[in-house]
Each structure stands twice: as C-alpha cells, then as structure tokens.
C-alpha cells in the first residue's frame, strides 16, 4: 500500500473516534505537533489513543471529507473537514473543524504529523 493510500484509509475509517482502529494506523513512536485553536499540542501514541476515546464519548459518528491530498514519497499533505454526530442529536451532522495535516509514513504507519486546525 502506498503512503497516500495509508492516509486515505485512515481518514475513511473510524480511527478518529475508535482507539482500537487507530492502533492499526499508528507507529509506536508517533508524534503529532498540532497548532489548534487552543494553542500548540504535542501528542504521542498514548495521547492520540486517549483523544480518540474522548471523541468516542461525545460523538456517535465521525466523517472526514477530504478536499485535497498530495503525496511526495513518504510525505502526505491532506486538507479535510471533520464532521460528527452527537449522542444528543445523532440525526444532525455537525462540522467540528477544518484541518490541514502533513503526515510522514514509516513502516507503513503514521509516524510524524504536523497539523493545523480551525474551528468552524
């Protein structure tokens, strides 16, 4: 599987709200440097799994709509919008935020991520 296909498969899966699925995609030494609306956050393997668990508690469904994806060897840039459905209102899809992420792939896993987000 190519690096681009790995990233596409990651965002098409339920990994963002299911830590068991996320484990399949993460390199054990993964690091994500995220510039969010709350400031800079540095996440490792455990904190990414915890984030997925936290999102799972609040949302029943997660959907990513990718608008751009560019591959250059083991580096993949992806621009997407993340939509969710809440437990309180599972029929309404809500835009959570817009993201742009650059992923480095190592051993067919997500190894380094550089991410920026903007709340909707």
What does this entry look like structurally?
There is one protein chain. This protein is α+β, with helices and mostly antiparallel strands and 120 residues long. It has helices at 3-12, 19-23, 45-58; strands at residues 26-36, 39-44, 59-72, 75-86, 93-106, 109-119. The longest helix has 14 residues, at 45-58. Strand 3 and strand 4 form a beta hairpin. It has a 6-stranded mixed sheet with strand order 2-1-6-5-4-3.
Give a quick precis of the structure.
The protein has 120 residues and is α+β, with helices and mostly antiparallel strands. The protein has helices at residues 3-12, 19-23, 45-58, and strands at 26-36, 39-44, 59-72, 75-86, 93-106, 109-119.
Topology:
Elements: H1 3-12, H2 19-23, E1 26-36, E2 39-44, H3 45-58, E3 59-72, E4 75-86, E5 93-106, E6 109-119
Parallel strand pairs: 1-6
Antiparallel strand pairs: 1-2, 3-4, 4-5, 5-6
Distance between the termini: 33 Å
* Coarse structural class: alpha+beta
Uncertain stretches of 5 or more adjacent residues? none
Outline = globular
The total count of helices amounts to 3
Radius of gyration: 14 Å
Strand order of the largest sheet: 2-1-6-5-4-3
Give me the strand/helix succession: HHEEHEEEE
Question: How many strand units?
Answer: 6
Q: Tell me the fraction of residues in β-strands, as a range.
A: over 45%
Please state the oligomeric state of the protein chains shown.
Answer: single chain
Kindly state the percentage of residues in helix.
10-25%
Major β-sheet, in short? 6 strands, mixed
Q: Roughly what is the average pLDDT, rounded to an integer? A: 96
């Amino acid at each position: 599987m190519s690096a681009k296909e790995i990233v596409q498969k990651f965002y098409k899966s339920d990994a963002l709200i299911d830590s068991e699925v996320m484990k399949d995609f993460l390199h054990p030494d993964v690091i994500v440097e995220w510039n969010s609306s709350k400031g800079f956050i540095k996440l490792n393997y455990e904190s990414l799994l915890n984030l997925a668990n936290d999102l799972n508690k609040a949302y029943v469904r997660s959907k990513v709509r990718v608008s751009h994806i560019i591959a250059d060897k083991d580096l993949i840039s992806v621009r997407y919008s993340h939509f969710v459905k809440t437990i309180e209102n599972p029929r309404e899809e809500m835009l959570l935020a817009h993201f742009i992420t650059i992923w480095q792939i190592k051993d067919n896993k997500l190894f380094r991520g550089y991410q920026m987000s903007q709340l909707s």
